[in-house]
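User: My collaborator sent over this chain with a note saying "see what the structure looks like." That's all I know about it. Can you take a look?
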Amino acid sequence: MPRNQRVAGVPADLAVILRDVGTLLLMQAGLLSLTVVVALVFGEFAPALGFLLAGGVAAGVGESWRRLFADAPDPKMKHGMVIAASGWFATAVFGGLAFFLVAWLTPVATMAGYVPAGASWDPVAVAGATSRSSLLYFRNPLHAMFESMSGWTGSGLTMAAHEPSLPRSVQWWRSLIQYVGGVGVIVLTVTILSRPGSGSYALYRSEAREEKIHPSVVSTVRTVWKIFVGYTLLSIGVLFLALWWTQDLPLFETFWQALNHAMTGLSTGGFSVTDDSMETYNSPLVETVLLPMMTLGAIAFPIHYGLLHDREYSELYEDVQTRWLLLLLAAGVVALSAQNLLVELPVEGYRATVPSPVPTLSTAEFDAIRDGTFQWISALTCTGFQSSPIGQWSDGGKLLISVGMTIGGAAGSTVGGIKIIRGYTVSKGIQWQFSRVFLPKSAVVSTELDGRRLDADDMNREFAEAAIVSLLWVILLLGSSLMLVNVTGASYADALFEVASAQGNVGLSAGITGPEMPVVAEVMFLFNMWVGRLEIIPVLVLARSALKGLNP
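Assistant: Without extra context I'll predict from the sequence alone. Here is the result:
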């Protein structure tokens, strides 16, 4: 486009971005409208008004941008990256507005009614009034923004100290944004941004989901959602039975917890509606049911399509990411369980243990293996469900989990982290570079990567991209960890753990994250979660564009 072209008085590049971000805000307005209905069903009239107002603001801004800049040119790749980064940030802002408005429009006396009878946690005093509802925390705009960013990025770290004290509609909103964000709000909306040349594939690629199931991106996204919804229904049913069998809960409460945990488990988000995540249940059966659910979310969706549609079961071991995911899951379970057996044996008061179903194991040994298995799979799949007090673990256990959160699962799935394919590409690239040293200059060099034969130029490009993203990811991880140590005084193991959880979009916590954490640390985590979800490059493109524009 011409360098000085303008649309509705603004530069054409900015008009392209605002128009498509506006479309994303309209999508969020629809989700907020659905949540208004949920609030009304539960008789939560003040929260319903908060969600209605937030939806109205999102719809007003989104529709204004979409109409005002309707004549903007079609976006190109450079626009796609900026739309991905700014669009995700915008959804977090307007999602946070919902938390904020609901908190301020709900009277403190009404909030007290959301607290379950017999709740044991201490009251929270705000402005001289006493209440125990965690909804009060969202009157702080930074806390509201943090909760929204954590939800949309699938991170799972929370400012809601006691989730059961939230209104049902707020519990639903937290689960819904993780569910949609798990597949990717940008990927979801390519069905809206599907006009020719719209750059929708650029949006799709910014989520590291480059392997398409169908030639059409729109068809791909629809297939992904069909698979996702099917798995969700199955997960709700299985989890409902496990909770019904093991927990003494009313029937509707059993369904409600199964619904929300299936949504956040399959999307590898990790938000919970119980006070201590999965530790509340203290049930090996519930944890066992969740293991395949979390693993499904960490496998690339093209593999699910191959298994379900084409019956290509060989892809489970032929696909390099799936093969390495299963190997890493097994190796990590062994390593973390061994660590727990050697160091983390429960002491009195460590947890409310249950009798071991394996006669040859003591209760303590069973819990060590049980915790090692669940927490490693939760970490590597970037789900963030927590079944034991990790803050009481030794540094060795925390560092092992940090490694899992940093690696993450397969690209093309709902997980965060660096992704297995990047680690594999870097290792293959190092081997390839080393092998070239022993070859004559005239040799024609090629290598195979995940079933593809690459020449020297292609391999250099693949290796460089994977190495750059991985290096930037690790630099940000280490730098943020040092900052967190200085700001909070936490040990480096705890700081590394917490940053890896935020940046890997996981949600496990060693006890640092919470409404009392320093403002500097909370803002840093907001950035870590945003960058981690978008895998750094789109955020860098956005920063460069803000400073210098999109032209070369």
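A starting point for your reply to your collaborator: Residues 123-130, 188-211, 346-350 have pLDDT under 50 and may be disordered.
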